[in-house]
Amino acid sequence: QVQLVESGGGLVQPGGSLRLSCAASGLGLDLYALGWFRQAPGKEREGVSSINRYYGTIYADSVKGRFTISRDNAENTVYLQMNNVKLEDTAVYYCAVGFSGAMRESAYVVWGQGTQVTVSS
């Protein structure tokens, strides 16, 4: 059974940093693309960043220069380093496994349960 478990969410002040982790079990991640999505209250889920099997990355314009996605295939884990966070980064963050690394939900087949990130002073 394939499972993704996110961790690292929490409360952070504007301008602060947070690192999210997503650990996979039941599946080796090295052949797959990995993505981070988020859903803010009252809004649709949106793509944040993705990394394909060749370590190519994509970022949403809203997080470019602030967030960094990385993967550790040996640890079967993908990370999202969030720096200089803003109030509008508040959301539930989800990781997902797919094939192409495209920034759309339909490109991903396995999803984690999500971790809450709240940016507040």
Low-confidence stretches: none
Biggest sheet statistics: 7 strands, mixed
Q: Calculate Rg over CA atoms.
A: 13 Å
Order of helices and strands: EEEEEEEEEEE
**Oligomeric state, counting identical vs distinct chains:** single chain
The count of strands amounts to 11
Shape: globular
Strand residues, percent: over 45%
Number of helices: 0
Mean pLDDT: 96
Separation, N- and C-terminal Cα atoms: 40 Å
Summarize the amount of helix as a percent range.
Answer: under 10%
Structural class: mainly beta
Walkthrough of the structure:
This protein has 121 residues and is mainly beta. 0% of the residues lie in helices and 50% in strands. It has no helices and eleven strands. The protein has strands at residues 3-7, 10-12, 18-25, 33-39, 46-51, 57-59, 67-72, 77-82, 91-98, 108-111, 115-119. The strands form two sheets. Strands 2, 4, 5, 6, 9, 10 and 11 form a seven-stranded mixed β-sheet that branches. A hairpin with a 5-residue loop joins β5 (46-51) and β6 (57-59).
Summarize the structure.
The protein is mainly β. Helix content is 0%, strand content 50%. It contains no helices and 11 strands.
